[in-house]
Design a protein that fits this description.
With about 130 residues, this protein is of the alpha+beta class. It has a single domain, classed as 2,3-Dihydroxybiphenyl 1,2-Dioxygenase, domain 1 (Roll), CATH 3.10.180.10. It contains three helices and nine strands. Strands 5, 6, 7, 8 and 9 form a five-stranded mixed sheet that branches. It has a four-stranded mixed sheet with strand order 1-4-3-2, covered by helices on one side. A hairpin with a 3-residue loop joins strand 2 and strand 3.
Length: about 130
Amino acid sequence: MSTPARAGVFVYAKDLPRLAAFYAAMLGMRQVHATDDIAILASPDLQLLVHRIPAHIAAGIHIETPPVRREDCAIKFFATVSSLEAAGATAAALGGQLFDERWEGPGFIVCNAMDPEGNVFQIREPTA
């Protein structure tokens, strides 16, 4: 990435490498920078920063397998994928999930998804 992104999303992670790998595969992103505490993923449409939760806070967080859906957030991001079906297979293989309910919007079909730590986000498949 030659210049800083103008917008993006932060996701806090207990298991940074796992969550970064999940989003990179799920959303077709590439890792452009990484340290022990952060992985920066990028695509032409989005910059996603996966930030490690500090150890003293992470110690009190239990991530179940399969993850428990966390819906007590005030914000949810969305990203576009070429195929909801393919994204569902990728999510399942990496410990996440696509939910069954679908909605149609102008030029897309959308559904909610969950990452391996239970964070809910939305993916959209173009219909045109």
